[in-house]
Design a protein that fits this description.
- The chain is mostly helical and about 425 residues long.
- Helices cover about 80% and strands about 0% of the residues.
- The chain contains 17 helices and no strands.
- The chain is globular, with a radius of gyration of 21 Å.
Length: about 425
């Protein structure tokens, strides 16, 4: 058990007995969803614009991999920073400041004149955007009553899912017709709308945006909790799983759009539409998730998901036609969310006495592993092409599925 002096990073349900969803809360949640839409779009827009950036600066795909890596690295590293800051200074206000920073950093991405400038702006963007979604979810937990919270969070998270879609589609379409910089300028404008809305709610209804400050834990105490969590075998096991997942899945997926461009000469608008089918596959899983979980259980569900993803990566590695991508990408999204939904649930259960801290560590490993995977895959593609990257991802993910099918600890599987 963690010591009683450790700072709580989530709040007891009993603290929320008088919480309610006021009109001020509803307005705030809407604009928080707008902010999460922009943050999600920023995360995935690089899938479509990466080959465009390489083309403009006349460099190889591997040479611009660090631009994509910078965002994922910073986003992952700063997950563990903003929880204590939100508790100490107020989640709503920290989110508002993060949105201003994200707007400025995204604007800088669109205006940068060098690869180094783009990477620096993406690094800053990832640092500040890391606050938005986790703190917004925590703030909803503060202000929304228990019996309403799940439905409210579902509506809030729809903004993030739509943002993923918009980032992939918009990055391709805006890049094709107005240049890749326009995609970042549009996202910066969406951040501006979120900032204006959050300021409006703050000025109009101070009570609705109450800070919910918890001053009983320092950042150093929180870091001590993180270190002690890492001594638990079940925590290390889940972090091992998510490291493989993120490294393999997104180290390869980031270059699916580039392979369409270089193999088949697709324009960037079409690439964006192809990549967007990945999110459609994910949404299809969400619709059927209750039924699938009930039928298969966590181990078999995640294993079948990795089989789907492995097959689709192998298919596009040797695709004789672009039509293979059109069938493979949505199936890849469906399979990935079968796996990732199981891992997310494991993350919430691996340390119930310190759930906030354990989920923060999970997110940190998830995004840092993406950053490493994207960078290394870019180097392999420059030297050997796309097929080795896609096939390696297939093998690693299939291995992951077998581990989850045969080695998932009982303390995790019985809680599903």
């Amino acid at each position: 058990m963690l010591s009683e002096s450790a700072p709580p990073l989530e709040h007891d349900a009993g603290d929320q007995s008088e919480a309610r969803t006021s009109s001020g809360h509803s307005r705030a949640i809407f604009f928080l969803a707008v902010a999460s839409f922009a943050a999600a779009a920023t995360t995935r827009v690089m899938d479509s614009v990466l080959p465009q950036i390489a083309l403009e600066f006349d460099v190889s795909i591997g040479s611009v991999a660090f631009v994509a890596t910078a965002y994922a690295f910073a986003y992952g590293a700063f997950q563990i920073v903003f929880g204590p800051l939100g508790d100490r200074y107020g989640k709503y206000r920290v989110i508002l400041i993060a949105c201003v920073g994200s707007m400025l950093a995204t604007l800088a991405c669109g205006l940068a004149s060098s690869l180094t400038g783009i990477a620096a702006a993406r690094l800053c963007s990832g640092m500040v955007a890391a606050a938005i979604v986790p703190l917004a979810i925590a703030w909803v937990g503060d202000v929304v009553a228990d019996n309403e919270r799940q439905a409210v969070l579902a509506k809030f998270m729809s903004g993030q899912i739509l943002g993923l879609l918009a980032g992939q589609i918009g990055g391709g379409i805006f890049g094709e017709y107005f240049g890749w910089r326009s995609a970042f300028l549009v996202i910066a404008a969406i951040y501006l709308a979120a900032v204006a809305g959050l300021l409006f709610v703050l000025a109009r209804d101070r009570e609705a945006t109450a800070a919910h400050i918890r001053g009983n834990g320092s950042i150093w105490q929180t870091l001590d909790v993180f270190m002690r969590l890492l001594t638990r075998p079940v925590v290390r096991f889940v972090l091992f799983l998510v490291t493989i997942e993120a490294f393999a899945m997104f180290g390869a997926f980031t270059y699916v759009g580039a392979s369409l461009n270089l193999r088949y000469g697709f324009d960037f608008a079409t690439i964006g539409l192809y990549l967007a089918t990945y999110c459609i596959g994910g949404l299809a899983y969400v619709v059927q998730s209750r039924r699938l979980i009930r039928i298969f259980g966590p181990g078999r569900l995640s294993f079948l998901g990795t089989v789907l993803v492995a097959i689709t990566y192998a298919a596009i590695a040797f695709a004789p036609s672009h039509h293979v991508y059109l069938a493979a990408i949505p199936l890849m999204g469906f399979g990935f969310y079968m796996l990732h939904n199981t891992l997310q649930t494991c993350a919430t259960q691996m340390a119930p006495d310190a759930r906030g801290s354990s989920v923060a560590i999970f997110a940190t490993f998830y995004f840092l592993s993406q950053a490493v995977g994207v960078f290394l895959a870019g180097q392999v593609i420059d030297g050997f092409g796309f097929a080795p990257v896609f096939l390696t991802a297939a093998v690693l993910l299939l291995f992951l599925g077998i581990v989850m099918l045969t080695r998932l600890p009982p303390e995790l599987s019985r809680r599903f």
